[in-house]
Amino acid sequence: MLGVIKIGRSSIIFSNITLISAKQIFFRNNIVTMMNFYVFRTTSEPVEVTKVSYKHRECMNCGLRPLGRVGSISIEFSSRHQYSDVSWSEGIYLTDNLFEVLYESKIIGWRKGELDVTVSSQIKNPTNKYSELIIIGRTQDYARKMGLALIDYCDQCGYRKYEYPKHGLEIPLECWDNSDIFYIDEFPGIPIISEDFKKVISKNNPTGVKLIDVSEWRPPSWANY
Q1: How far apart are CA 139 and CA 176, in angstroms?
Q2: Computed from CA positions of residues 184, 181, 173, 217, in that sequence, does the dihedral angle turn out positive or negative?
Q3: Which of 56, 125, 155, 166 shows the smallest number of beta carbons within 10 Å?
């Protein structure tokens, strides 16, 4: 029985014994996995959020709150250690020049969000203009496909916490929505990018970001607590 899997802008045809692709594909536990994904990690100091509004209140049961926000967010740069091409706090912020590169390179899985920016007088001759990088790419059916262990659940707001892998992340192609930048909903706060996105980063060398192969990623110390 043959099937077709889309990879970026192209497709491959496979059977249970044949796999044809120009990219690095692996079968692992009967799951087709493409390993050329990377974690998009910010390296600058976080900026200060001066104004933000949320769609939801904190859950009275578990004390958590969905991440959805209302309107734009206001931030302030107070030092040069924050003032890089890629900055962050409650979101990821890019210079408009970098956004233009993403658009021209036909990178998908994101949209541009409004951002109110204040720059401290300690930063001399500021020239960058910033907007928020809103990541709209998402994996699909990841928890079931990967057999994730559920370690916490709130029956009031529906919050679910899954156990993070101890070494590396796997991205089954069946779960990938073809976005060049996306989140795994079960592991919030970890932006994943494609090989095409990596090429853009490597060519333009923006400050404030580091790329980590998903196979080398390690969870933060708080992840499984």
Answers
A1: 5
A2: negative
A3: 125
